[in-house]
Design goal:
Elements (H helix, E strand, L loop, with lengths): L6 H12 L12 E2 L4 E2 L6 E4 L7 E6 L5 E6 L4 E3 L4 E7 L7 E6 L9 E3 L5 H13 L6 E2 L8 E2 L6 E3 L24 E2 H22 L15 H15 L10 E3 L16 E4 L9 H17 L5 H20 L22 H15 L2 H10 L19 H10 L4 H24 L15 H18 L3 H14 L24 H5 L21 H4 L17 H4 L3 H12 L7
Parallel strand pairs: 2-9, 12-15
Antiparallel strand pairs: 1-3, 3-7, 4-5, 4-8, 6-7, 8-9, 10-11, 13-14, 14-15
Length: 575
Amino acid sequence: MRTVLGAAALAVAVVTAAGGQGRTPAPTPDIKVDQAGYLPDAPKVALVVSKAAGDTFVVRRARDGQVVFRGTLSAPVADANSGDSVRAADFSTLTETGAFFVDAGPAGVSWPFAIAPDVYARAFYLAMRSFYGQRCGTAVDLGPEFPGYAHDACHRENVFHPTSGKAGAKTAGNKGWHDAGDYGRYVVNSGLSTGTLLWTYEMFADRVKGVRLNLPESGNGTPDILNEIRWNLEWMLSMQDGDGGVFHKQTSERFCDFVMPEQDALPSFVIGTGREPFKSTCATADFAAVMAIAARAYQPFDATFAGAALEAARKAFAWAAQHPDVLFTNPEGIGTGAYGDRDCSDELLWAAAELWRTTRDGPYLEYFTGHYGAHLARIRPAGPAAWGQVAPMALWTYVLGGGTGDAADAIRKASIAAADVIAARTEANGYRTSLVRTDYVWGSNGVAANYGLQLIVANALAPNPRYVTAAGDNLHYLLGRNTFSLSWVTQVGANPFTHPHHRPSGADKHAEPWPGLLAGGPNGRKQDPAMNGMPDLPPAKMYLDDQESYASNEVAINWNAPLVFLLAAQLPPHK
Ligand SMILES: [Zn+2]
């Protein structure tokens, strides 16, 4: 790791600088900054909502309070999704590195932020390492950096549920990541999450391969990001039945209480559909896509593992192609997440595309070219990829993998058209997020991160600095430049959220939650009892930093994965 200015150090610096005569202005949430910071060569904008603000602002050096930039606030933008009137403080031409804060006179001062080439290195490290914290089936210890953030080996009673058509203990591959605030493991949600992390490695290997995550496997010659991903891949492999089909999920029959994972005594069941063929299509096709990517990524480090992943992917695709419509709903007596998806054609397309990219085999190409047209409209200006809609990944991997011809032309064109609309909308939005009103759903922060991914991929297909800026804007939104002035990543920034719906964070003895976790974020639909007590506010304001609010403050691997991707895109090449 490079040296990064920590949040604590920055906060102390501001107190000193506030200085002058011993006066200590507390940062105001009315001035919003990316609390991790800004890249020296990138646009730098703070946002001001205070009615007390004048027309000017300055940026001060945290160390000595010296003014390093003077600017004028923009005209206010009425932000309909939050109800806020937002003015921009643009200090893009400030390229000095260090720690700073915005001072808007009578409106107050911002939380501190840094300007540096590696300003997102710490956030990347924590966000990617949070997957290690989610490991199941083993003891976890975040080490001296986070003393006591640890749990013993968990969920060691692994059993085939009667709905799987099998019986007895499941003996192998009891690894994987706890999915979210709960301790379940779900192949469908693992699909997009693990695929996104593998894409992070494939697209940004020069930036991420040297980042040491301080894992038990660190130093084994394999990049740590791949070491961590493998923990979940080995669980996914264990969910494949002998005929190639893949079971949908492995969870207890109901959610456990808010206890540490090793204190959850409920058996972990492999759960099937309850009748022949017991496995489900979406899980099997997602599995095939992920294993096909893994076959590429691990080839230089462990050819045997890569070969096994490819074989598993081929068998899974064959099964899914033969059983294209086996949907999953929770069997009677099962109360954990269903991750039910009514249409598995996008998962099948993704599997075919990734298998083609890995093998160049004709039948996968034929499947792709025969089906992609029906999915083109899923690369769209509103509504990025999500666990139930992976068609964009299928379409993009075809072009990123060297696909040519009409399909590649159409995919590139659709990607540019969508990204142009998203970038323009982001530039015009008060908070400069790509989210539209209907995006403030359960996990809206994951939607924002996936817009970022969409823009970065569009930039890879057709380079355009506007796409990169808009992607960075979504990151700024997540790291503090939002209506709450909260960093929505635990233990990142000077004012992060603190009460995630996350069992280890709630059950352990520490005041601070486990680090590196992205909050679900504002949810205009009031989908939990805690939110039901809220007044009706604009959707961007419908959020509670409250452990009870699972519909706005849970964490999940499918939200953290695109955050990791977006952060990796902003890292400097590793030396
Ligand atoms: Zn576990």
